[in-house]
Design a protein that fits this description.
four-stranded antiparallel sheet, globular, 10 strands, single chain, six-stranded mixed sheet, Rossmann fold, alpha/beta, about 240 residues
């Protein structure tokens, strides 16, 4: 894969917290532009750490990381916030603001960017429509189910149309049906060109999905190619 084709590149990345053991050891992989892939592994295997390194929430002990052609080691100070605005982040807990409506929660990234009111309204409603929650725009988070709250979090992550989505255990608190729906949402965004990297321990949920799987164990990364069977799609999840 050429540098121009890669959204994420890890080259011999190591990471440890303080004097503890290495969480990531000599990790190298690439995520192509427009690719969707999963990171799996037991709790504590380093999945969240890998995503945090991409989001500049942590720095590697050694090694090199490039995202969308940018060397992360060169992004410092005020440039970090601008870089993060190019990434949609989705967590197990969507951390919605309880005193804001669904519309206002989704609008926050656009308000930070200083968009006009008309543009914000158009983009927020398009994002809510994409996750099936346009009818909930005036609702407050406490009135939503867990699955609905997670979908609001996804709408907030995609409302600014970032080229890259990172999701950390996004289905951990959801029932199986809603977990499948969340995975379908990721596929829909991926099908329009968004690169998607999902950390999950839900092996049963992703077993038959046509995406590459990166497995972390003992700080070491291994890869499993997607099953090429044409009939296996997210519609069968």
């Amino acid at each position: 894969m050429s540098a121009a084709d890669a959204m994420i590149v890890f080259e011999h990345v190591h990471h440890r917290y303080g004097e503890g053991p290495e969480v990531l050891s000599d990790t190298s992989f690439a995520l192509a532009r427009g690719e969707m892939a999963f990171i799996t592994g037991a709790s504590g295997a380093g999945k969240s750490t890998l995503l945090n390194l991409i989001a500049l929430l942590a720095r590697p002990s050694r090694g090199r990381i490039r995202v969308d052609g940018r060397e992360l080691a060169e992004i410092r100070g005020r440039r970090i916030a601008a870089y993060r605005r190019c990434i949609g982040m989705i967590f197990q807990n969507p951390s919605l603001l309880a005193d804001r409506t669904v519309f206002d929660n989704v609008a926050l990234p656009l308000l930070i960017r200083g968009l006009s009111g008309a543009d914000i309204g158009r983009r927020v409603r398009a994002a809510l429509d994409a996750v099936g929650l346009l009818h909930k725009e005036k609702a407050y988070p406490a009135t939503l189910s867990g699955g609905e709250q997670q979908r609001v979090g996804i709408a907030r992550a995609v409302v600014a149309k970032p080229p890259l989505l990172l999701a950390d255990e996004p289905t951990g608190n959801l029932d199986p049906d809603m977990a499948r729906e969340v995975m379908r949402l990721f596929l829909r965004f991926n099908q329009v060109g968004v690169s998607v990297l999902v950390a999950t321990h839900a092996l049963g949920l992703i077993r038959d999905l046509p995406c590459r799987v990166l497995r972390l164990s003992g700080g070491v990364l291994s890869e499993q190619a997607p099953d090429p069977a044409p009939e296996r799609t997210f519609d069968t999840v």
